[in-house]
Amino acid sequence: MKKSVWQLIAVLVVAAMVLAACAPGPVETEAPVEPTQAPAEPTKAPEQPAEAPTAEPVVEEPASFLEAAFAGEYSGTVVTMAGPFTDEDAVKFNAAVADFEEKTGIDIQYEGSKEFETTISIRVDGGDAPDIADFPQPGLLANFVRDGKVVDVSQFLDMEKLQANYNQSWLDMAMMESPDGEIMAGVWQRVNGKSLVWYPKDDFEVAGYEIPQTWDEMLALSDQIVADGDTPWCIGIESGTATGWPATDWMEEVMLRTTSLENYDKWVSGELKFSSPEVKAAAEKVGEIWLNDEYVYGGRASIVTTFFGDAPAPMFEDPAKCYFHKQGNFITSFFPAGVEAGVDYGFFYLPPIDEAYGKPVLVAGDIMAMFNDRPEVRAVMEFFTTGASVESWVRSGGAISPHLDSSLDWYSNDVDRGVAEIILNATSLRFDASDLMPGEVGAGSFWKGMTDWVSGTVDLDTALAEIDAAWPK
User: Fold this and answer.
1) CA-CA distances (angstroms) from residue 354 to 141, 181, 223, 442?
2) Which residue of 31, 70, 198, 349 has the fewest C-beta atoms within 10 A of its own C-beta?
3) What are the boundaries of the signal sequence (predicted)?
């Protein structure tokens, strides 16, 4: 009996074990559920690293070629330059870029030449153009632009930054026609102003005269000086084979003050003739001063025989023989030795004629153009759009910065500082028209025509017609 019972128990145990082995276990049925829900928490984890890549370009990648240069990306490269800077100017230019070279590792190799206009043409035509060239005459640069030899810098420069750091007129004057349409042919680095009237400060103040704010006030003061028994103006345009060029500056000044910038630009390009009413009216306005023997020291006849560098000398006689001389800021190098700015002489802005045209300033300067397109060359060009590129030159004297990020505190003398202030506050700017015109006109018939008219050899209509006749067909 007991044996039967134990046999029965054994059978039941075995059966239970078989059933247990065949049934699905609770751990294995729920185990897959845990993994499918567990990642539900980490599924948000990828969102955190997903944000990191969006920030990387801002932090790690330079926003411009200039920033890349300062990050050392172009260290060891060479950028070649050519221009007219020689002697002291070359020393000052190299000093102005020295800090940039040290911080970036880019070697700027500048080759200056007094025959720059000839050498640059030979190099470009021979396929040996420098990476960058410094043009003091935009008209020469325009020739290379027309031939498709110049890089459009607007392709890589930030236009918003340019507009924030330049008077719009500087940007407008950099636009030139190429085979592919209008391009930005370069950037302005060093400039100078021409819309200046110099006067003998001590004699002027003793006489009780005040700086005129308008053209009419200037003429009224001229009349007062005549009434006081003196002569208001010293003028001279003799310059050897270049005789007449100072007269072109006067014409340009009056054009900017009596007609629109559009007309000025058309005049430069030949669309607006010298014989047009606008240009003739400007010449007549110049004549109100030049052809008045009471206004000019030595009379009208002396204008064409007086060397332009000697013209201001009578201002410094005791007492002064004249009170006004219009010329660019370079003229101080012709002043007598020992005279002091702010004591012996001062200057003021050549006043506006028609308030509708604001306070324009006639300028000259250096525009940097790019011939070879490489990252390090782009970086140097971008550097030239900043005041830092000319700061040390400004501090040492002899340079005016067109950049709005420059400081008037950089200027070491009152003359440079005053000229810079006039340029920075100008409502509009335009380059010397004669330097932009074809050589046959700007350095030919324009000079001669003005000289012939002032000397009385021909009348105004004849002079203007002869200038027009020389325009290339």
Assistant:
1) 32, 34, 20, 26
2) 31
3) 1-23
Cα separation, 35 vs 49, in Å, equals 23
Question: Of the given ranges (23-27, 109-113, 125-129), which has the lowest mean pLDDT?
Answer: 23-27
For residue 184, which of 203, 194, 170, 204 has the smallest C-alpha distance? 170
Residues 464 and 402: their CA atoms lie apart, in Å, by 34
- Could you tell me the pTM of the whole model? 0.83
DSSP labels, 29-53: HHTTHHHHHGGGTGGGTTHHHHHHH
Kindly state the greatest CA–CA separation across the chain: 162
Q: Calculate helix-pair angle for 277-290, 460-469, nearest 10 degrees.
A: 130
Where do the DSSP E strands lie in 230-345? 325-326
Check: CB of residue 195 under 8 Å from CB of residue 419: no
Indicate the fold that domain 196-362+432-469 takes in CATH: D-Maltodextrin-Binding Protein; domain 2 (3.40.190)
73-192+363-413 to CATH, choices 3.40.50.2000, 3.30.2320.30, 3.90.280.10, 3.40.190.10:
3.40.190.10
Write the pLDDT tens digit of every residue in 195-239.
999 999 999 999 999 999 999 999 999 999 999 999 999 999 999
Residue 180 burial (CB count, 10 A): 8
Tokens of 87: 């002697």
CA dist 108 and 384 (Å) reads 12
Distance (Å, whole) CA 261 – CA 356: 11
Q: Which residue intervals of the chain bear CATH 3.40.190.10?
A: 73-192+363-413, 196-362+432-469
Distances (CA, A) of 64 to 57, 61, 144, 455, 462: 12, 9, 27, 56, 55
**CB-based burial label for 143 (10 Å; 0-12, 13-18, 19+):** middle
H/E segment holding residue 452: helix 446-455
Cα atoms found within 13 Å of the Cα of residue 244, Cβ hemisphere only:
20
d(Cα 117, Cα 109) in Å, to the nearest integer?
19
- C-alpha 324/C-alpha 322 separation (Å) is 6
> Rounded to an integer, what is the distance from CA 322 to the centroid of its chain?
35
Judge contact between 237 and 243, C-beta under 8 A: yes
Burial 424-448 (b: 16+ CB within 10 A, else e): bebebbbbbbbbbbbeebbbbbbbb
